[in-house]
Amino acid sequence: TTPQTQETTQTVEKKEYVYGINGLADLIGCSKTHASRLKSQGIFDEAIIQRGRKIIIDREKALELFNNKL
User: Fold this and answer.
1) Are 22 and 55 within 8 A, CB to CB?
2) What residues have CB less than 8 Å from 12, skipping those under 6 apart?
3) Among 16, 17, 44, 67, which one is most buried in terms of CB atoms within 10 A?
């Protein structure tokens, strides 16, 4: 194959997100209180986008951080 066809056949990752403290709690299998406490400790800072009360969490990154930090 030519270099041009290799560039056009790159796979595009579709990120999956969970939303809110409830979503985080479901993702890691704990209570909302514990999920909120972990978020406050900064464990998930790299995976979280927050604007006001809206919380969007990159699912894959959050699981990676959770497994590495605990």
Assistant:
1) no
2) none
3) 44
User: Which tens digit of pLDDT belongs to each residue from 2-54?
Assistant: 555 444 445 556 889 999 999 999 999 999 999 999 999 999 999 999 999 99
**Burial of residue 11 (number of CB atoms within 10 Å: 0-12, 13-18, 19+):** exposed
What pLDDT score was predicted for residue 28?
95
d(CA 55, CA 7): 34
Q: List the 54-58 sheet strands across, edge first.
A: 17-19, 54-58, 48-51
**pLDDT recorded at residue 69:** 79
Q: Which amino acid is at 53?
A: R
